[in-house]
Structure formats: structure tokens, C-alpha cells
Amino acid sequence: MAMADSNSVSHSGNALNLESVRDSLIRQEDTIVFSLIERARYPVNSRLYNQTLGLVPGFSRSLVHFIVKETEAIQAKAGRYENPEENPFFPNGLPPSVVPTHKYPQVLHPAAASININEHIWDMYFNQLLPLFVAEGDDGNYASTAASDLNCLQALSRRIHYGKYVAEVKFREAPQDYEPLIRAKDRDALMNLLTFKNVEEMVKKRVAKKATVFGQEVTLGNNSSGNYKIDPLIVSHLYAEWVMPLTKLVEVEYLLRRLD
Ligand SMILES: O=C(O)C(=O)C[C@]1(C(=O)O)C=C[C@@H](O)C=C1
């Protein structure tokens, strides 16, 4: 029988420890790599991101902004943001959930809810990452392209904000090491303490390998074309330059609030 994957602490009921939290990060790599492969099906479609075209009557921002905001509103009604692992890109004015509340385990310090770096993730994704891996051109598939963008954004956001759980585990495992640094508000020392260079090297190699495996042309013969749907080097660059540094930023922000 297939087992439900333990993609998240809030669903798995697993003990919270560094291994289980890292397992979740590893599983989330699959989601991120697949979401990028899906987005790469479409060309850049830059009209989607242009604020000045006025594509949506009465809405002054870009079409992608409109689609993300409206999608988040319906997902909020269905309870998505009741899950402490999920953070909206447009938190202001979101409608409340209309479905029965699910009891998510209270793992995090309540201050976790005040940490949302999605503005940063939005900027990184559209201005730095996207131009690296999509083709030039415009095929008019704006709604589908925006849905793909939202999948990428949500997968990246979930992974990066998962730093809250990583930080909670690290704090619980060594409060005597973290507490003095938190009291001294010493960001640099906290950053050093929570950094494992060897783990980061493994993550970079593994995500590049996943991009190679998931993004290869599958044929029935054994002639591999050597073409990948997303360049494995771009995926490891994404992790090295943005995903891991932003996860660590979330970890530091969380720890700084951990004793409040
Ligand atoms: O695995 C950890 O310990 C994490 O904090 C996660 C992570 C990452 O983002 O992948 C971040 C910092 C560490 O240096 C190693 C990896």
C-alpha cells in the first residue's frame, strides 16, 4: 500500500526533529523542481507582468497580480492560510475561511505568524529567477502561465517559510546555545550557529540531480538527448543564491522572536 508522504510536520504527526524537518525540505525540492519545469512550458509572456497595460478593467496592477490575489482569496475561503505552513502573497483584505477549522498542531511560537517575506520572494522570482529559465516570446496563454507562476511561488514560499520549523527544532535541541545570542540580538552569530555548509553543499548537488532526472526527455529507446526542460545549474543556483539564504533569514527572524 502506498504511504502518504510526510511532506510536512503539520500533516504527518511525526516527531519534530532535525531529520524529519530536513526530510520535508527534501520532499519539497521535488515540488519546486516540477513547478519550474511546468512554468518552462510557456515563454516569458511578459504582458502578464506589465502594470501599465490595464488588462483588467478597474485594476491598476498587472494581470499576474490580479490572478494571484483572486486565487489567494478563494484559497483563503477554503482554509489554506489556517495552516501555519502557508503564507499569502497578499495578506491584506483576505476573506476568512468558510470551512470547518482544522486543528493544526501548535508547534511554533505564536510570533511565527508575524513573519512573512513573500514580498522578497515575489521580487526574486519575477525579476531574477524567471528571466533565467523561460524562453523569449508570447503565446497568449496568460491565465495558464500565471497559474504556473503561482505554483512556483507557493512552493518556494512554503519551503522558505519552513525555516520557522527548522529554527524551532534547532532551538529545542540546544536552547543553551541559542538563548544568549537571541537575548543579545546577535544576528550574525545566530546565522553562524544555524548554518551547516556540508548540508548546503548536498542540497545544491541533489536539486541539480533532480532537475536532471525529472527534466530529461523520456524515450523508449536508450538514446538520451541530453536536453533538459530546466537547466540543472539554474536550479542549484536558485538554491544557493536565494532559497537557502532566504530560509536562513526566516530562521534568524524566527529565533529573534523565540523568547518574546
Ligand atoms: O538543514 C538545515 O539545517 C537548514 O537550516 C536548512 C538549510 C537549507 O536551507 O537547506 C539552511 C541552512 C543550513 O546551512 C543548511 C540547510
From TrEMBL:
Pathway where it operates: Metabolic intermediate biosynthesis; prephenate biosynthesis; prephenate from chorismate: step 1/1
Pfam family, one: CM_2
Protein's cellular compartments: Cytoplasm
Residue ranges constituting the Chorismate mutase domain according to the UniProt record: 142-251
Top EC class for this record: isomerase
Catalytic activity: chorismate = prephenate
NCBIfam families (alphabetical): CM_pl-yst
Protein's UniProt name: Chorismate mutase
